[in-house]
Amino acid sequence: MVxxxxxxxxxxxxxxxxxxxxxxxxxxxxxxxxxxxxSTASSTVCxxxxxxxxxxxxxxxxxxxxxxxxxxxPVVKPALHAxxxxxxxxxxxxxxxxxxxxxREWTRRMETLxxxxxxLIAILCEQEEQNPDTRGKxxxxxxxxxxxxxxxxxxxESLLPKLATWQKSKQIAQxxxxxxxxxMMTCPYTLGLGEPNINGKPILRYDDVCKPNFIHxxxxxxxxxxxxxxxxxxxxxHQIFESLTRSARVLLERVSRSxxxxxxxxxxxxxxxxxxxxxxxxxVEDLHLMMDPxxxxxxxxxxxxxxxxxxxxxxxxxxxxxxxxxxxxxxDLNRKVPEILEVEVDPRGGPGVMEEAMKVYSEKxxxxxxxxxQAMQGLETAIKRFFYAYKQVLTVVxxxxxxxxxxLSQIFLEPTCFPSLDAAKTFLxxxxxxxxxxxx
Length: 440
Prior knowledge:
With about 450 residues, the chain is mainly α. The protein contains 20 helices and four strands. The strands form two sheets. It has a two-stranded antiparallel sheet with strand order 1-2. It has a two-stranded antiparallel sheet with strand order 3-4.
């Protein structure tokens, strides 16, 4: 039984003296899957997946540090890689000779994906400037000096400026450039992709950070000889996917450090950024719905996807070690709740964490803690949405007879990873439902 009488003093409520104490029976919440219940496919399958996407080369690039003083490089660089691959993907779609694909809808979806990624990059750059430890460290060029040297004020290597000059892609490229201009408005610098830069802000050294020429050299696959246009589509889609998951992993490492250092506002901002990455991953996976059914199923056979995974008991997406690690790290954030609330976990399962959460929610003095707790639960919601959507995409693209879907259902149907926070809100809701001091 949990007593809520402390709440009346805390909120100075005007409950009638005859109002009884509120007490509820103990909630028996089922336990969610543990992180150990989620694992990658076999090493053979994961290695084949990595080699198909040229991930060893990407990981070498992600691990490199060309700007030691710029602590945001490990987060922003993979996000820029995903964006640059998206530009290449737009070129691939518009150059596709097949008369039966829906180019109009493909173009709309690619534009949406590019704009979603630009919004994410702007958030990462804005967070960087709000943190005194990272502010002003980004590698930028002052355009006031470039005018004297008559050099370009935008990237030489990125495909976006080139797309803006091609008749087929001119309109979509101009709309994307307008998005860059508007999204980067709150940042002290802009990306330097050919956007108007009306305010004359410094521009990011995009070519030095992103290395577009190297990224585009990784376009080839070990299966280019099969002459299936969906091969390039699948390849680009998953390279974008992997680049975004890399950014998320680095952000999650920062979240842990921010919580350890009691920098809860930073932690909340970083968690919200990870949430947006999960939402972007959903947009990326939805691109599979646009692939031609017969061409994709032929590609599935040509790549040996079914043969390789015949004895696997995990979904196709768990061939990605980055995704599995990212999922585990997100779910493990529930271990940080007692640390945030500054309360020890009762080994006997007592309600100490729940009661402290109720106090934090009610007393508005620790609003930074509320922000990070809300961000954690929002992140959990985004994860479940992703795996639910992924299951639907897999069913539509490969048919309902596809194997290995049970674990996906478990993930989005399982109970919350934050049972104490859930119970705290349940009890507070019950309290206010039975309070006589509320008037409308």
